[in-house]
Structures are given as structure tokens and as C-alpha cells.
Design brief:
With about 160 residues, the chain is α+β, with helices and mostly antiparallel strands. It is built from four helices and nine strands.
Length: about 160
């Protein structure tokens, strides 16, 4: 991660009860929150750099990020990540290099958990981990469907 600072795990910093954490009670969310870290970032800062090793799952607490892909001659927009959304889900299931760059459009805060810490959480809290992973898989599936729609639309136009 570039251009941000880690925030102390203060008592008031906790993941919100949004999807897929809506069924987590406060204690469950506090447990998950303590397995990761918060990062504050300013506008223009790179949160995830395409091509770098990436094996963390992120939740955008506040701010707006742009996901972009490096192409010859510049950057191609992929999408916008808004507060309350997860990102980095591809690399949780298939840890490799980041497939896109996430750049802060507005200053904000994100929470992240590394794959190792996530595995510890899953081992210690299997029922909660199952709910979390099903929710993250849903995010991944929705993004895959959106990508397929974009490819189909491009194909129909060029055909």
C-alpha cells in the first residue's frame, strides 16, 4: 500500500453491519475487525498497485476509489469502489499479482485483512468465516457477471 498511514485500532473503529456482515452482531464484527487493520489515505494515493503481489481483502469504510487497468498509453477505467464495498476479493481466492490499480479519488479509510489473518479467522470462527466468504464470493460473482455483460456488449457492437 502506498501513501497512507495505519490507524491505531481504537475502540470506535469497527466494521459496519453492511453486507456481508449484516448478520454479524457487534461482538462478531469487533472480532473480525481486530483481525485486520485500518488505513487512512489521501486523494490520489495508490491503495493497490497493479502487478504488485496482493493477498489482502479490503473493505472501503469511507472515500471513493477508482479501479483502473494499465494499458499502452495510459490507464483504462474498470470501475468505482464506493464506501461500503469490498475489493481485493480475487486475490483472496487466488493470491497472485494485483490485476488492477486502486487509486483514491477522495480521501478516506479502508480496512484490510491479509490472507494469513483471514485463514486464522476462518479456523477460529468457522461459522462467521463461512458467512463472510459466501458474501465475498457473491461480490466476486456479481463483478464477473458485470464483466461478461461488458464483453458481450463490446462483442455485439464490433460484430
Amino acid at each position: 500500500c502506498y501513501g497512507q498511514r495505519m490507524t491505531d485500532q481504537a475502540e470506535d473503529l469497527m466494521l459496519p453491519a453492511s453486507d456481508p456482515l449484516a448478520s454479524f452482531d457487534e461482538e462478531d464484527r469487533r472480532t473480525l475487525t481486530s483481525s485486520g487493520k485500518f488505513l487512512d489515505f489521501s486523494e490520489g494515493k495508490i491503495i493497490v498497485n497493479e502487478g504488485d503481489p496482493q493477498e489482502s481483502l479490503y473493505f472501503l469504510v469511507s472515500g471513493v476509489l477508482h479501479a483502473v487497468h494499465k494499458v499502452k498509453g495510459g490507464l483504462a477505467p474498470i470501475g468505482t469502489i464506493k464506501s461500503g464495498e469490498w475489493f481485493g476479493e480475487i486475490n483472496i481466492f487466488d493470491p497472485q499479482k494485483a490485476t488492477a490499480m486502486c487509486v483514491a479519488h477522495l480521501e478516506g479509510r479502508t480496512w484490510y485483512i491479509t490472507r494469513n489473518k483471514l485463514e486464522e479467522f476462518l479456523n477460529d470462527h468457522p461459522a462467521l468465516g463461512c458467512v463472510l466468504l459466501l458474501g465475498v464470493a457473491e461480490v466476486l460473482a456479481k463483478r464477473a457477471r458485470g464483466l461478461i455483460q461488458k464483453v458481450n456488449a463490446t462483442w455485439e457492437i464490433s460484430y
